[in-house]
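Forwarding these from the shared drive since the link keeps breaking.
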Amino acid sequence: MTTHPLKITGTHLADGRELIYFDDSADVLSGEVTRELTDPRDLPGSVTESEMRRDPLTGEWITYAAHRSNRTFMPPANENPLAPATPGHLPTEIPSTDYDVVVFENRFPSFSTRIAMPENPDDYDWQVDGEEIFLRRPAKARCEVVCFTPDSSKSFRDLPLSRIRTVIEAWRHRTEALSAIDGVIQVAPFENRGEEIGVTLQHPHGQIYSYPFVPPRSQRILEQAAAHRTATGRDLFDDILDAERRSGERIITETPHFTVFVPAAAKWPVEVMVVPNRAVGDFTGLTDEELDELPALLKHLYSAVDRYFEGVERTPYIAAWNQMPVQDRLTGEQERLRGEGRLHLQLFSLMRSPNRMKFLAGSESALGAWISDTTPERIAGRFREIWEDEQ
């Protein structure tokens, strides 16, 4: 077991948004180097009008954040808002000239705690057009950006193990903090990478969304897990891992604390999951031993993803951590889902062959009926080839 030295320094940007440095460098830990805490920009206060509406046909909440249509899109290198501040260049979101890992509130958030509301909450229109069937709510939660490195040419796979551990510590720290926000139900760290995925900034970064509801995929997982426990008395994730081990067809690797495998019903052209071998709800529940083991496992996995397709240097992907909801916030029908679910990473790509993307057309987008162009066993076989080559 090791202890990961870390210095956490918080400040606020010119418009009031919070920014936090997570530093593991020796010169910062010793106090020889300090981070700049003052944002020199003249920015208006950060206020949004995000709202949610409930679809009466599906029961799902849809979020509307019209201000995001004007967010920064693929700026030139000298206007990169996620780079450290450089003398002679435009100020960025990070006031310091260097950083290890930094987290800050998104300037163009989908969910925000700074939503323009009437002075009297009773004046808020909780229904669309006054119709009871169309429920409306303020999209009150928080969205954050996580910059993995100051070097815009790098990727998550390129980070040293100590820096990946710092990113994990940031995820853990922010999971605890965001879960404490009134009304937040679930916290989800994720990364989008690649123009094909739709990223608007090329700098290596991820995001952390907190939601004032349980997102649909998480809701379905909780419901399946609860139904499985009712029917069998057992944990769904334990039974899935046991079944995958008995089969052996889709497991990529196992460690003392984690299993990496392609799900038996994988949807995406490339898809892999990382699941703790014991029931863990979120990052705050991981032990020191699990935290020590995870960086090397993730570095190996992300490197393998970038070798999956011949001739593709950087595979576009989405890497999303699914965490259990804040347990004491589940009410009504959801109370039966308390204690279900498990922390896990779902990493997938829409690329179906070198430089060719899978488009979600009629069956997938309109009806939600998925059709795959490959098989989970083929995906796992390719991953095992790559994995063994890197040993």
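-- next protein --
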Amino acid sequence: MNFVIAALALIIERRLGYPQQLVSSIGHPVMWFGKLIDFMERGVDKRERTPRQRRDAGIFTLAVLLLVALAVTLLVQQVTRSVPQGWILEVLLATPFLAQKELGRAVHAVADALQSSLAEGREAVSEIVGRDPQALDEAGVSRAAIETLAESTSDGVIAPLFWLLVLGLPGIVLYKAINTADSMIGHLNERYRHYGWAAAKLDDLVNWIPARLTLVLVTMACFFVPHASPGMAWTTARRDARKHASPNSGWPEAAFAGALGFSLGGPRSYDGEIVDLPAFGTGKRALVYSDILRALVLYRMTLNVTLALTAAIAILWLIAA
């Protein structure tokens, strides 16, 4: 039944997204997670504590977050499964945790802005990346948008879908709670190196399979995208993915780079400091706004392949049932 729920959730979210009216009135589940994480951080992360004490505080914060998310989700699931056709509500509840529509919209906005001017492109890309936008030229803005698209295809779409398929509604909610904690506190800077250790490590663990599954799906999508190379997507990812400091982020980035004949990654500027990062792929590096649009075509075809496979398994299950 998880495949049926997942297939319908993919269709609904891709078509409708998460309505802005709901964001304005009740917020988004990720915002709720963020408020709890922020509340816990203010209460337990004291700077005068030892590194071990701060690590323990981070573990406690993560445990509270996951227990609250699990308890609420199990209660909701108990209600949905006790009423006729309650699985339909599970479909609707799963959709906010899939970021297909918003991710595509945000990246497309960068391409549109960059087509108008570099200044507008920098402003648009600053909404989706943490690097210094003023340090980016047109190629830098384009690479930043495509790198974000590739990485978020994995942790914003494929990973939550994977955990929905494996563990149902609790799986996708717990995944998103972990991913939100990692994005807020799972950093290697002085502030979060110890406190965010547990969130970062757990996020690496739950994204391990989805990141590599994304490579498979991107490779499959290449067969349906003009001028995209499935062979280079696979070869580049197998060769370059492990260069990334993250055990997971390199796989989708290298897959997109190889598929489209780009070179992604490389040095970046954060808070005025240049960070030397590895490059993925050996192709075109002087990217322009139209290359972002090419990457979006590959992204959408990857979503199509993902939906087709999910729906096919759901239909087979319904026939067998």
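The chain has a mean pLDDT of 93. The two ends are 10 Å apart (CA to CA).

- D.
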